[in-house]
UniProtKB/TrEMBL annotation:
Lineage: Bacteria, Bacillati, Actinomycetota, Actinomycetes, Micrococcales
Name of this protein: Heme ABC transporter ATP-binding protein
InterPro entries tied to this protein: AAA+_ATPase (IPR003593), ABC_transporter-like_ATP-bd (IPR003439), ABC_transporter-like_CS (IPR017871), P-loop_NTPase (IPR027417)
Keyword Calcium: no
Annotated CDD domains: ABC_Iron-Siderophores_B12_Hemin
A Pfam family annotated for this UniProt entry: ABC_tran
Domain of life (superkingdom): Bacteria
Organism the protein comes from: Curtobacterium citreum
Domain ABC transporter, chain residue ranges per copy: 10-242
Keywords carried by this UniProt record: ATP-binding, Nucleotide-binding, Translocase, Transport
UniProt keyword Nucleotide-binding present: yes
Length: 267
């Protein structure tokens, strides 16, 4: 069973990050339980990637962060790599590697264990999940931007960890693949995992997240259900742009529509 913690798969307690005298995060508390997808939203520069890096254990901070009850930094990196997988916002282009090889790199934490026998099956399954099964032998740098993002997501899935930390996984993707990535995230949570996903598309957050946490200037300004957090007043104030929020006609989840001034076409 994965993510069987009662305390929460990810528990962030009072963390702060200061770089060059500038506070990038302050007083951040956040709990993500097994079975949950948490969307982390907020304007450019709010501190979303910084928070994800801190949760991943890749950034010095004050306060404490635990994944499945184990403090990050309190165990060998290999053990951490078996608990959480990270999709960074800017993934390096892997020159000289084929798509299948890049995805297989995600299996590295399991090398030499009994789970390594699953490598071929896992690589095939995750490539299928991102609809790149037919690209397994293509040179990674020759993929389109969106394909490259999906292959990187597949590498993260191949790591087979209970916790997924995804920084803007949908930024380069078309409509179909945005929905597909979040459907995979939901399935991961349904299977007992936990997902923290940074999203700019607030309607996607509204549709797929169990909870939304909104960051602004390094602080959590709201944390709750999509309906509670994604209000027109709050979004308008935090993003400094007026919006209308309407219920999705099929699901009732909040759809966020930015206010626009459309020029009349001249006749
Ligand atoms: P976002 O919410 O857009 O992901 P980030 O977490 O990447 O924001 O960055 C938050 C703020 O911290 C930004 O203003 C960014 O310029 C700044 N920042 C991030 N990393 C560093 C760093 N290593 N040194 C200085 N400033 C940084
Ligand atoms: Mg970012």
């Amino acid at each position: 069973m994965i993510g069987a913690s009662t305390a929460g798969a990810v528990v962030v307690s009072g963390i702060g990050v200061v770089i060059d005298g500038r506070p990038l995060l302050a007083d951040v508390d956040l709990t993500v339980r097994a079975g949950e997808v948490l969307a982390l939203v907020g304007p450019n520069g709010a501190g979303k990637s910084t928070l994800l890096r801190a949760i991943a254990g890749d950034l010095a901070h004050s306060g404490t962060i635990a994944i499945d009850g184990v403090r990050t930094g309190g165990e060998a990196p290999l053990a951490t790599a078996r608990r959480r997988a990270v999709l960074e916002q800017d993934t390096a282009v892997a020159f000289g590697f084929r798509v299948g090889e890049v995805v297989r790199m995600g299996r590295a934490p399991w090398r030499g264990t009994r789970r390594a026998v699953d490598d071929d099956t896992v690589v095939a399954r995750v490539l299928d999940q991102v609809e790149l099964a037919d690209r397994i032998d293509q040179a990674f740098p020759s993929l389109s931007g969106g394909e490259s993002a999906r292959a990187s997501f597949a590498r993260v899935l191949a790591q087979s960890t209970p916790v997924l930390l995804l920084d803007e996984p949908t930024a380069a993707l078309d409509l179909r693949h945005q929905e597909a990535v979040l459907a995979v995230a939901r399935a991961h949570a349904r299977a007992g995992g936990a997902v923290v996903v940074v999203l700019h598309d607030l309607s996607l957050a509204g549709a797929y997240a169990d909870r939304v946490a909104m960051l602004a200037s390094g602080r959590i300004v709201a944390d709750g259900t999509p309906t509670d957090v994604l209000t027109a007043d709050r979004i308008g104030a935090v993003y400094r742009h007026p919006v209308t929020v309407v219920p999705d006609p099929n699901t009732g989840t909040p759809v966020v529509v930015p206010s626009r001034t459309v020029q009349e076409a001249s006749s």
